[in-house]
Specification:
Number of strands: 9
Distance between the termini: 25 Å
Strand content: 5-15%
Structural class: alpha/beta
Helix content: 40-55%
Number of helices: 13
Shape: globular
Radius of gyration: 20 Å
CATH class of the largest domain: Alpha Beta
CATH architecture of the largest domain: 3-Layer(aba) Sandwich
Length: 340
Amino acid sequence: MTVEKMRDYLYHLPEQFAESLKMEFDFVEDYRSAYENIVVSGLGGSAIGGDILRTFALQKASIPVVVNRDYNLPAFVGEKTLFYAVSYSGNTEETLSAYRQARERGAAIVCFSSGGELEKMARLDGKPVVKVPTGLVPRAATGYLFAPLVLLLEKLGIVAGARDELGECVLVLRDIRDSLHPEIEIEKNPAKKIARELKDSIPIIWGSSGISEVAALRWKAQINENAKSPAYYHVFPELNHNEIVGFEVPAELVSRLFVVILKDRFDHERVKRRMAISRDIIKQRVKGFVEVESRGESFLARLYSLCYTGDYASFYLALENGINPTPVALIDYLKAELAK
């Protein structure tokens, strides 16, 4: 798998939303019910869409959305649960285990996958499968692994406004990629600048609870998988009650930290103040910091604008380190060992 593969995956992310908007969900009438909760089960790139759905639902839904990253389901899952099994490959063993438990407990199940064992089980059980295109890697399929999830909830009347917000995502991300794609030189390319500063450092990503927390997680995971580098994230205001104290010793290590602060104009006013004070606390101790502002009007457009910049920054960090961002050899090795 080549460097060009990941470059192309990143470039075509806006089109994933555009194509998802054409989905019909012909099974929707069979799924209208008075659910008490929604559980999204997935791992890695197949779970990030669940996290975005969770934060979107905090503002839009009257029932909770919970993301499950485990073999086992929470005890509350039952007949009043709408259960999403999300696995790009269809072979994620934790998700397959959770699917079986959801089936046993009588939950209403919808699967999102490109195929694999999950699709086979769902077809045999008479459960609907929302098919996503093959040929990607899970972390590059975030549009396909989020948009259908929220569009189905909108069809069911659980949330509102998703279609319009996804339409804005297409426009905002297309505009952003014009400034981030490889042909744009570093002086005019914010993602390239960030990657240059992140080289030979340990990235720390800070977001804000309920707004940019998922973007911070996405930055961390993309740096891990694309740049093959350690990275860590936390969120305001919680990090001001613990992590902010951890920038003293060992001084040599702290001096190699580079902090990325993800900002949104709808951050709580006290969180904005906390960001400013925290920046002042660390600025003389760490290698550096950069602030990244969201773009767009709707929640989803603003969130994905932050994620998209991080996607490109992680890609360029891989190139800075002379690494092919596409393969994930250690994950492949781990899965092979588990399969023995």
